[in-house]
Each structure stands twice: as C-alpha cells, then as structure tokens.
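Key result, reporting period 2: structure in, sequence out.
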C-alpha cells in the first residue's frame, strides 16, 4: 500500500493512502473535536465540529472523511477553525439541551464558547417518548447526529426502526409513520442508546434511578411496563 506524507499543525506525518485527516492527526496525538463521528460507524459528516483548515482549499473540510494527500498542509486549530467550532456549539446551545453531553462541556471550555450568544434563538421543542419498558426518547436533547439511525440500520442492527422526519429546522429523529416504538421493527437491542452522545436516548433503569426510583421498586416498575407492552395498554 502506498503511503502519503503531509504536515499537520507543523508536524510531518507519513500514513497509508486512504487515511482520513482525523486518523492522521490522532497518530500525532492531536485530538480533533467531534460529535457525530463514531469509530465503528460510517461518518455521517453532519456536526461539522471536526472541520480543519487545508491550505489552498476554499472552505474548511471535515476531517472525519477528508483523506490525506501528498504534501497537504493542515491546520486543526487555526483561528478560522476555532471560530467555526465556537459558532456551531453556540448555535446548538440556542436550540437543544446539552446538559448531558460531557464532550460539549469540555469543548465549550477549550474553545471559549458563549452558550448565551444566541439566547434568542428558537428552541427545538420535541415530545418525550416513554412508550416501551427499555428506554426513553427525550428529543429536546437530540443534536441530529444520526448515530441512532445508523446503528438501527446498515451499520449495526439492520432493523430500520428509526429514521429522519421533517425538513430544515424541523428535521427530527422519528419512527416510520411516527408509530410507537413497540409497533415498529425495533427489537430493543439497545444499540441506539449505546451510541447516543447526548442522553436523548436513555436506558429505562438509568432514567428511573436518576428520578429517585429506589432499587427495590425498580424491578416492579419494569415489570409493570413490560406488562403494558405485552397487553398493548
């Protein structure tokens, strides 16, 4: 396999052809912020937090999919890059609940994000779904990273219970025909919950414990919910 030599933040690195800029940077110990990227799934390239500056390119490029080229000179933390990342996070703060997204809290501190910059922005209101015994869906915390849709689909489970609905600002994660989860093809494998980075999808045990349900009552509550699922009530 041929190899490529490029420069990232002043450091020269040689990597195999086909390596992404994100992977090449990690070889140098450079951690590029990301939210939608998951190492075991197809990069959806929707959050754009991993953008970097490629000398000679007109726009910033997403490091999770952009592949290395011979002689490329990349800047992962230039002022232009930092400003873009700050703006993305500030816009997210204006529209969704990021209180359970630890990566965002860390990026906020590193980048000097002002969560109140767009305080007058429109909040993405979304219903709370508690329609099965295994997990809840709290979409006011959803950043539309698509991870759950990918995990439910071609990248993991091949179940296709989750999909995208709406358009533009009103795009949302939903089920086909907005059906309750027990009426979909969901097999309750938990992969969608496992890859969610924001707490929008949360296991029922965790959800109930956070709300003060004692361990002694937890099993009873889960049995009640399972009975509701089995009877359709």
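The corresponding designed sequence is given below.
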């Amino acid at each position: 396999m041929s190899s490529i030599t490029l420069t990232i933040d002043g450091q020269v690195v040689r990597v195999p052809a086909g390596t992404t800029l994100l992977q090449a940077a990690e070889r140098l110990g450079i951690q590029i912020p990301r939210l939608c990227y998951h190492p075991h799934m197809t990069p959806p390239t929707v959050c754009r937090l991993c953008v970097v500056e490629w000398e000679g390119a007109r726009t910033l490029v997403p490091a999770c999919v952009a592949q290395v080229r011979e002689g490329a000179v990349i800047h992962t933390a230039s002022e232009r890059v930092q400003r873009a990342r700050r703006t993305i996070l500030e816009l997210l703060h204006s529209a969704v609940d990021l209180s359970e997204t630890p990566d965002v809290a860390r990026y906020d501190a590193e980048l000097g994000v002002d969560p109140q910059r767009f305080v007058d922005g429109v909040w993405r209101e979304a219903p709370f779904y508690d329609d099965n015994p295994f997990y809840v869906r709290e979409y006011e915390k959803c950043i539309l990273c698509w991870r759950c849709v990918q995990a439910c689909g071609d990248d993991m489970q091949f179940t296709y219970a989750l999909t995208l609905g709406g358009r533009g600002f009103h795009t949302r994660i939903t089920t086909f025909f907005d059906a309750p989860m027990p009426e979909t093809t969901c097999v309750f494998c938990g992969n969608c919950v496992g890859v969610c980075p924001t707490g929008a999808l949360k296991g029922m045990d965790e959800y109930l414990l956070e709300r003060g349900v004692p361990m002694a009552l937890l099993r009873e509550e889960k049995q009640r919910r399972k009975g509701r699922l089995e009877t359709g009530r």
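Residues 128-231 form a domain with the Alpha-Beta Plaits fold (CATH 3.30.70.20). The longest helix spans residues 79-95. This case is discussed further under Risks and Mitigation.
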